């Protein structure tokens, strides 16, 4: 089968929802173009510092690879990798090492922070404390909020204009569906609108329109070495359940993931924007409510230091 774009080369990938066939070169160009369009000229320009959350997984490294290509030639702009070590035995160290290797190979500056130095506990320790107290808490629910807070702090320290997160189309569709199903309109609004607060670095998601399978293809085509092992806690997550359902829908109805995300983006204009953010009364960091989610969680575990 010939490539639908250049009409010359043999295609290697059939995109089901569009019916297009891509050769390797056209596919790589297509992904980069799509990411460029997602970010736009207001973000890819001079005098920008972009912090990138790097886990060492395929999404964050593909994002870093593309952003590095976009920003390297732009004068007075730079990117910096922000790596968070949650402290997950037998898993995270490998990811961190892959992220560091990647940064060294592509000459990207990086900073590392750990849960331990930031809140005094590893994720594994937090999970154990919750278990000992018979609290049924999903590790992902608190891992995510703590990491988010640390990344924001790192991005502020580095004076970043934006914080780039490697969420792909699948991640977006899952997050949207989870909030729909839980009926959590506030969380839906937060997912789509960034809070307007100088203490909160605006987040960008360069891969939000690229499905996971295409991120994977891109990484393999460009021989990007990424951390493949899944997090030991990931199968326990509600997200994993939602992901299976969405994958099934996509299989039977190609384009479902796009329509979940584009429908949500249309809905966004009707969702309330948080005008001002409060400051958490314990840690003084930006928070949608009086107490931020991290402090709330630490309080529940009985380990909040105030
Ligand atoms: Fe954290 Fe869950 Fe991701 Fe593991 S899968 S790193 S626990 S958010
Ligand atoms: Zn082609
Ligand atoms: Zn707090």
CATH topology of the largest domain: Rossmann fold
Q: Please tell me how large the radius of gyration is.
A: 20 Å
The kinds of small molecule bound in this structure are: iron/sulfur cluster, zinc ion
Low-confidence stretches: none
Nearest-integer average pLDDT? 93
Content of β-strand? 5-15%
Highest CATH level, the class of the largest domain? Alpha Beta
The profile of the biggest β sheet is: 5 strands, parallel
Class by SSE composition: alpha/beta
Query: Under the CATH scheme, which architecture of the largest domain would be assigned?
Result: 3-Layer(aba) Sandwich
* Amino- and carboxy-terminal Cα gap: 65 Å
State the gist of this model.
The protein is of the alpha/beta class and 306 residues long. The chain has helices at 24-39, 58-71, 92-106, 115-119, 123-132, 139-157, 169-182, 185-192, 212-221, 238-252, 256-267, 293-301; strands at 13-15, 20-22, 49-54, 78-85, 109-114, 162-164, 203-204, 278-279, 286-287.
Can you tell me about this structure?
By secondary structure, the chain is of the alpha/beta class. The chain folds into 2 domains: 1-39, no CATH class; 47-278, 3-Layer(aba) Sandwich (Rossmann fold). The chain is built from 12 helices and 9 strands. Helix 2 (58-71) packs across helix 9 and helix 7 runs antiparallel to helix 8 (185-192). The longest helix is centred in the middle third of the chain and has 19 residues, at 139-157. It is globular. The mean pLDDT is 93. The structure holds iron/sulfur cluster and zinc ion (2 copies). The site of iron/sulfur cluster has 9 residues, from helix 6. Iron/sulfur cluster binds next to helix 6. Zn(2+) 2 binds at residues 280, 283, 292, 295.
């Amino acid at each position: 089968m010939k490539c639908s774009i250049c009409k010359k080369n043999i295609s290697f990938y059939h995109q089901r929802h569009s019916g297009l066939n891509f050769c390797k070169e056209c596919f790589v160009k297509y992904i980069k173009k799509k990411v460029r369009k997602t970010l736009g000229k207001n973000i890819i320009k001079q005098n920008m510092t972009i912090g990138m959350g790097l886990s060492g997984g395929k999404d964050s490294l593909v994002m870093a690879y593309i952003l590095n290509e976009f920003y390297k030639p732009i004068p007075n702009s730079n990117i910096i990798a922000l790596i968070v070590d949650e402290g997950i035995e037998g898993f995270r160290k490998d990811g961190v090492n892959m992220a560091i290797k990647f940064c060294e190979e592509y000459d990207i500056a990086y900073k590392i922070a750990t849960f331990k130095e930031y809140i005094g506990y590893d994720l594994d320790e937090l999970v154990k404390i919750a278990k000992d107290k018979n609290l049924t808490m999903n590790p992902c629910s608190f891992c995510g909020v703590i990491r988010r807070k640390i990344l924001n702090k790192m991005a502020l320290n580095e004076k970043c204009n934006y914080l780039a997160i490697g969420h792909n189309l699948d991640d977006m569709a899952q997050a949207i569906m989870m909030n729909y199903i839980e009926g959590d309109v506030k969380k839906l609004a937060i997912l789509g609108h960034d809070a307007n607060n100088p203490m909160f670095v605006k987040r960008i998601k360069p891969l939000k329109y690229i499905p996971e399978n295409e991120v994977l293809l891109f990484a393999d085509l460009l021989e990007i070495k990424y951390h493949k092992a899944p997090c030991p806690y990931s199968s326990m997550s509600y997200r994993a359940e939602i992901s299976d359902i969405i994958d099934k829908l996509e299989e039977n109805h190609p384009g479902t993931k796009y329509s979940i995300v584009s429908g949500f983006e249309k809905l966004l204009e009707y969702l309330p924007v948080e005008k001002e953010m409060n400051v958490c009364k314990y840690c003084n960091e930006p928070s949608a409510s009086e107490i931020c989610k991290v402090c709330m969680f630490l309080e529940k575990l009985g380990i909040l230091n105030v």
